Amino acid sequence: MTLSLLTFTTLFPNAVQPNHGIFVENRLSHLVATGEVRATVLAPVAWFPGRTGQPAPPFSEQRGGLTILHPRWLSIPVIGMNAAPALLYRAAATALQRLLDQGAQFDAIDAHYFYPDGVAAIRLGTRFNLPVAITARGSDVTQFPDYPVPRRLILDAASRAGAIITVSAGLREALVALGVPAPKITVLRNGIDLETFRPMDRAESRTALSVSGPTLLSVGALIPRKGHDRTLAALSLLPGWTLLIAGEGPEKGRLVRLAESLSLTDRVRFLGAWPHKRLAALYSAADISILASSREGWANVLLESMACGTPVIASPIPGNSEVIQSPQAGMIAEANTPEALAKAIKTLSSAPPDRAATRAYAEGFSWDATTAGQLDLFKALCPEPRSAGTTVPGRHECSDPNTHYPSLG
Question: What is the architecture of the domain spanning 202-364?
Fold first, then answer.
């Protein structure tokens, strides 16, 4: 019996942003590969009249055998945070109704990111009589609850969700601290694609990148919470090291100016956005990967690096200690400061783990356990799939906790 899921999220790769939310696509792809689940992806794209920027993705596309729909939702500047769930719901409801009118059937909504996505997903579940599972992924439960309206709506969504998933124990603890009952939360960490991320010929990788000497790699969007500024400051304390930064974002200009002010221009290379499937060559060329983030849910880049045989240095924030649990993986810095990061780099580079041992450590983080956990959760959430043809018109046999939804306005 095959379950039919509607995966609902604003975090999903598209033709314009091929790396956007790729962790959601990876988890879903492994689930669908079991043959026990099929899925359609509803991934709305923010839009506002007159706003300029990068081109929008197509309204519909195919990726890896999945159909992905990109309805536009009105994202209003300034007041957008509080209004986002209602506006996102409005666009998604129209798109979902069109799917149902065309004969599609779904057993449950698989929502990713609590705010605004999960909040809007609960309202979709109410309207279309579908149970909802929400996955918390990071700032959705560590940052948005600092604001009164998002906090209220997140807690309400959590109370009405049929299941809640977090990608780390740290995020589970964050939800519990907000008042969400612990037994309702399942931890299903992200895994790593061990075929895509594997050790490549180190000499060839370094030659292709024209690097020599000790080399650091930082992979991540150029946004404040990724801490690239701290990494640059740490580099200034490490004579002879080169830093490669793979990523794009609004902080690029500031980071370039910072590198210039620290006299690091000849030791820092901004590589721009790097195709996800080509990152293995970058990891293989580096001696150490570094992540100086101030917040993470589950940092996939750490596992990607380790799977390529490259140990990591990471900031001491919730989630990172769940990824780095052995000297073969790398080190957690004592503090998220340039000085502590530089100290950790010196310590790790003075006695680096064998690269084969680092790869072996990463092999313990395959997608198998996460995929099995998802199957168990969705089967429990919807024991009699309507997509199997057993549904009485106007009813839904699956357990549906969504009986009421407060105003989102």
Answer: 3-Layer(aba) Sandwich (3.40)
